[in-house]
From TrEMBL:
Keyword field: Membrane, Transmembrane, Transmembrane helix
Provenance organism: Streptomyces mutomycini
Transmembrane segments: 31-48
Descriptive protein name: Secreted protein
Length: 64
């Protein structure tokens, strides 16, 4: 839960920065948000979630 919340927050911040920076307009941003919303209700959602969790685990195992 904490990982998914932080990813949502990070992607939201990136989206706001792209919109304010002018490299992404409002219409395509809404389409991107709706695409993510509807993608979350498909059968691919568990696979995407597992993939993102494996990436997070891999990053977590990196020691500096």
């Amino acid at each position: 839960m904490a990982i998914s919340l932080s990813v949502v927050l990070m992607l939201g911040i990136v989206l706001v920065v792209l919109i304010r920076g002018g490299s992404l307009k409002g219409g395509p941003a809404v389409v991107a948000v709706l695409f993510g919303f509807f993608l979350a209700s498909t059968g691919m959602a568990p696979s995407i979630n597992r993939f993102m969790n494996s990436i997070a685990d891999t990053i977590n195992q990196i020691s500096f």
